[in-house]
Amino acid sequence: xxxxxxxxxxxxxxxxAIVNDAPERGMAHSLRLADAAVADREAALAVLLADTPxxxxxxxxxxxxxxxxxxVAYPVRDGRPGHPVxxxxxxRAAIAALPDGxxxxxxxxxxxxxxxxxxxxxxxxxxxxxxxxxxxxxRAALAALGALGPASN
Length: 153
What we know:
Elements: E1 2-3, E2 18-19, H1 27-37, E3 45-47, H2 57-67, E4 72-77, E5 80-81, E6 85-87, H3 89-95, H4 104-109, E7 115-119, H5 132-144
Parallel strand pairs: 1-2, 4-7
Antiparallel strand pairs: 3-6, 4-5, 4-6
């Protein structure tokens, strides 16, 4: 888990929080920090974004299982990639050299990697919450899944 300064919530047992003290450097910087924190260079790295709240443990497990021996796995619907993205050892070796910025797409699409696209028909991998309207859509989707109780005012 990579956290931005000022967003330090209590960390659950078994989870190590890595704080990105320079979030202005972009997603690649957060990815480098997370990658450096995982000592086992043969382990896969699952990347989840904080603004994709419908990504759940079942979806993460599905994408991890689908990866098999491929380099990269991620959900897709109608050609649109979603999250989480799971990187195996070969693409992980390229993370340290990523330039600052939002280069996750570049790493995921690199022609050197064998990719597995996991077909998903629901919103979980694709709903990105950046605006109040997006948050309301996420709340409605969670309510439809029965994941939320009644809204509080």
